[in-house]
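From the methods appendix. Each design record in this collection lists the tokenized structure first, followed by the designed amino acid sequence. Records were kept in a plain field format so they could be parsed without special tools. The example shown here is representative of the layout used throughout.

RECORD:
FOLD TOKENS (353 positions):
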């Protein structure tokens, strides 16, 4: 900028000399020439910065009892518990990704079945719905839930009847609360949703308020004291192999079924877990069909897996749900979010690494 001003000064002086020579006028002084020249200063560059605004943490007045996640309203309605099929023809299922808690247990024929518990979220489609077994009834009764199924074993129905448990059986009288899809063959095409079941509960005069099972959840800062658990393999019988892979960034486990990502049929969303409980339990074959009796009360041994860690546990059915206990018989709290409970035969070759 100074060089530019000097050149301009020289030019003005030269022109002045020329005109003075022609006119005889006196040359202006150097100071006068410099004052007559307007010097334009370049404004300094100002770097633009983007201000990062952190969203304030919301302090909810209540939490959902089965997930530990915050909510604006107290959750007092009874959970809906649905028997969901898991044969290859039933996959992918609908609604499991919105369940608060899911049990996976062997039924007859070496096929696993899901006992899916819904309270904090209300899927528009749940299924395919299948029949109930006695140990499914025991899990449902403990949770004080509305029981949703299509058919039963005789012992299971006897338990429901004698204990007066609220249930919706599509096969025997409750078809109004279900529908069948046209894109799958029976029996793999039966569906329901929580809205229909709650309407049915009102129609049948079932109690609406719920007896909370008081699940125990950890503080945000709590970290499980255990070994690394980035890969989990649960080998149910006849190829019903379940895998979980830990995503450290999201602090969740993604679920895989028979080697493929286990996804929701409606949304294509992959199923996840914040807590994985593996409970080794005694299994007994009752008849030639392969019906089982499964001990869901314990105590027994197993594992709890959360946040990339695994710890050996003792499990026991206490106050309506299977819980994990450490070597000092202190309950191990769950992380807030979704919980999958796998009941497997004693001696199953669980792989965790």
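DESIGN:
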């Amino acid at each position: 900028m100074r060089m530019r001003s000097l050149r301009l000064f020289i030019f003005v002086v030269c022109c002045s000399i020329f005109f003075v020579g022609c006119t005889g006028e006196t040359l202006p002084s150097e100071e006068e020439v410099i004052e007559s020249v307007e010097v334009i200063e370049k404004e300094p560059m100002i770097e633009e910065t983007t201000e990062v605004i952190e969203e304030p943490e919301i302090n909810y007045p209540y939490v959902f009892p089965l997930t530990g996640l915050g909510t604006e309203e107290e959750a007092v309605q009874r959970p809906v518990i649905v028997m969901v099929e898991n044969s290859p023809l039933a996959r992918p299922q609908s609604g499991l990704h919105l369940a608060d808690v899911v049990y996976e247990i062997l039924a007859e024929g070496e096929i696993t079945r899901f006992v899916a518990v819904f309270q904090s979220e209300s899927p528009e489609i749940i299924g395919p719905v299948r029949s109930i077994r006695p140990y499914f009834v025991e899990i449902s009764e403990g949770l004080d839930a509305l029981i949703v199924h299509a058919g039963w074993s005789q012992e299971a129905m006897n338990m429901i009847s004698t204990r007066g448990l609220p249930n919706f059986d599509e096969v025997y009288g409750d078809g109004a609360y279900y529908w069948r899809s046209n894109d799958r063959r029976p029996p793999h095409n039966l569906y329901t949703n929580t809205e229909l079941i709650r309407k049915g509960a009102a129609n049948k005069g079932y109690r609406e308020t719920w007896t909370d099972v008081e699940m125990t959840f950890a503080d945000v800062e709590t970290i499980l004291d255990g070994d690394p658990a980035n890969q989990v393999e649960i080998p149910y019988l006849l190829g019903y192999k379940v895998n979980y892979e830990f995503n450290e960034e999201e602090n969740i486990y993604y679920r895989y079924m028979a080697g493929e990502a286990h996804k929701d049929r409606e949304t294509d969303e992959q199923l996840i877990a914040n807590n994985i409980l593996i409970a080794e339990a005694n299994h007994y074959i009752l008849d030639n069909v392969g019906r089982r009796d499964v001990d869901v009360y314990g105590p027994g041994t197993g594992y709890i897996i959360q946040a990339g860690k695994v710890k050996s546990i003792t499990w026991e059915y206490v106050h309506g749900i299977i819980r994990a206990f450490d070597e000092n018989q202190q309950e191990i709290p769950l992380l807030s979010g979704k919980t999958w409970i796998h009941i497997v035969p004693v001696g199953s070759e669980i792989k965790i690494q």
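APPENDIX NOTE: Residues 2-23 form the longest helix (22 residues).
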